[in-house]
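Students often ask why inverse folding is considered easier than folding. One informal answer: many sequences map to the same fold, so there is more than one right answer. In these notes we will look at a single instance of the problem. The structure comes first.
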């Protein structure tokens, strides 16, 4: 379950976290190995198919597969896009599996309501507090990448 943390420290459970239901991650599997395995399960699909459907350039995807380009800084949305492509192809996978393969924790889901609420609160802050909030968020993101 996903827990939504309230300002007073309490939390409530409101939606299932599909990523928690099953974990298909193979211990020690990096992104190239993961992609090779999942492409093998996708009935004749190729790197070019994956790149096109996930909105990633083929040279970039190929460089990840051949380990000529690092994978630790891949945009989370690119990882999620690949997950969605494989799922459309009928391959069982999770964002957790992809994030683990690049050595990063899985970012929490972002619902439209929560994003709207955050933006509304942000806009109510004075400019100096907005800057401080952005710096805090950047620091939290950096910290989560090192854990």
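Output (designed amino acids):
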């Amino acid at each position: 379950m996903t827990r939504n943390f309230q300002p007073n420290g309490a939390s409530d459970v409101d939606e299932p976290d599909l990523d928690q239901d099953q974990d298909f991650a193979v211990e020690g599997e990096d992104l190239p190995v993961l992609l090779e395995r999942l492409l093998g399960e996708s009935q004749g699909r190729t790197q070019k198919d994956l790149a096109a459907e996930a909105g990633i350039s083929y040279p970039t995807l190929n460089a990840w597969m051949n380990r000529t380009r690092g994978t630790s800084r891949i945009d989370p949305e690119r990882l999620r896009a690949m997950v969605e492509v494989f799922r459309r192809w009928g391959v069982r996978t999770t964002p957790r599996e992809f994030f683990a393969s690049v050595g990063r924790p899985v970012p929490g889901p972002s619902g439209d309501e929560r994003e709207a609420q955050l933006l509304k609160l942000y806009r109510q802050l004075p400019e100096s507090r907005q800057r401080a909030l952005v710096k805090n968020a950047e620091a939290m993101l950096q910290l989560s990448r090192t854990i």
